[in-house]
Amino acid sequence: MMKKVLSVFLSVLMFFSACAVGASAATTGDSGEFSAICLNVAGLPSIDYITGGEDKNVLANQADIGRFVEAGGFDIFAAQEDFGYHEYLVKQLKSYNYATQHHGGVPYGDGTNVFTKGHKMYNESHIPWNTLAGLVDEGADQFSQKGITYVCIEIADGVLVDFYDIHADANGGEASVNARRDNFTQLAELINNRKVDRPVIVTGDFNAFLFNDDSNLKSILVDGCGLKDAWVELKNNGDYNDCSSFVESMGGNWDQKWGKWDAVERFMYKDGSTVKLDCTSFEYITVLNRKGENASDHVAAVAKFAYTVTGEAGDQGDLDGSHGASGFEEFIRKVVSFFKAIMLVFKNFDQIKEELKNYFGK
């Protein structure tokens, strides 16, 4: 008898759960828009006081960046290099109700985090790169857990977008370029092997350009994944092969691309099977601190997107609304990260000693 009652109870519960999901499902023809900002917040500790340079107030800059984002009213904020000063950044994000799990500073964290203003996030995952180059050279990428933060964001009732915030391997040496190609290939495989064909947004610090770059960004992510690039679509007439007219408009100065056009920060996107996604505006902006200086060493990429539901979404798979690992899992992850860093130091001790000697000997 008890088993029968329990069976009836579970059936009723599943029925009402199904009704609740159905009630929030998107309807064909539904449309709307949302905004997003991407910024490498430069949250690494400043060592200028050691090297004799002009000290940067990284802590204050994080607070100023947080205030800027809060005042801007962006629906989604994707950060990179959000390391040891995380609390000073998020303290200002008063209207951002959802955030991915923060993993801490170097060497524990990956520095990539996503914040939303009321848009629920599901299936959060932090995925380290398979390949990184450099310990004390080539950008010292191996001293962090660089990679991808993935979340499925509900931008409207029943409208879901697969959102990837990345920080690719830095520097321009051969080892770094090869690592970056591998980063983009790993990202492409994640996107192409998804079980549900939702629209996609990829943002972050790519450390690569679409033009005049050897990282194969175009062939891997544009040609290989079908992604569009916001800057190319809106500022370069959709031309992925030639940007000479834009270079001419900049006085022929190719170097001005850094932070001004086809910068390393970008938004890439594509439609899903039942949701059309368009980028309607895109700009690079400099976020200033209270002194009127750049609060980061990067510019921010700011975009607006419009979506239109073109059909019934169907089965969206399991949607897990929890964020990040448990406390114990996070503790184990940090222990492993710490010992990996120690092993890297011992393995490369002679190189580290030589690099430091060369650096401070200058």
Question: What does it look like?
Answer:
It contains 10 helices and 12 strands. The protein has helices at 2-23, 48-51, 58-72, 86-90, 174-192, 217-223, 230-235, 244-249, 327-347, 349-360; strands spanning 31-40, 76-80, 98-99, 113-116, 121-128, 147-156, 159-167, 200-205, 228-229, 265-270, 275-285, 300-309. Helix 5 (174-192) links the parallel strand 7 (159-167) and strand 8 (200-205). The longest helix is centred in the N-terminal third of the chain and has 22 residues, at 2-23.
- Shape, per Cα inertia axes: globular
Q: Count the strands?
A: 12
- Helix fraction, binned, reads 25-40%
Rounded radius of gyration (Å): 22 Å
Question: Which structural class do you get from the secondary structure elements?
Answer: alpha+beta
Major sheet summary line: 6 strands, mixed
List segments where confidence is low: pLDDT < 50 over at least 5 consecutive residues: 1-23, 48-53
> How far is it from the N-terminal to the C-terminal residue, by CA?
84 Å
Keywords:
362 residues, 32% helix, disordered N terminus, 6-stranded mixed beta sheet, alpha+beta, 10 helices
TL;DR?
With 362 residues, the chain is α+β, with helices and mostly antiparallel strands.
Write the layout of secondary structure elements.
Layout lengths: L1 H22 L7 E10 L7 H4 L6 H15 L3 E5 L5 H5 L7 E2 L13 E4 L4 E8 L18 E10 L2 E9 L6 H19 L7 E6 L11 H7 L4 E2 H6 L8 H6 L15 E6 L4 E11 L14 E10 L17 H21 L1 H12 L2
Parallel strand pairs: 1-2, 7-8
Antiparallel strand pairs: 1-12, 2-4, 3-4, 5-6, 6-7, 8-10, 9-10, 11-12
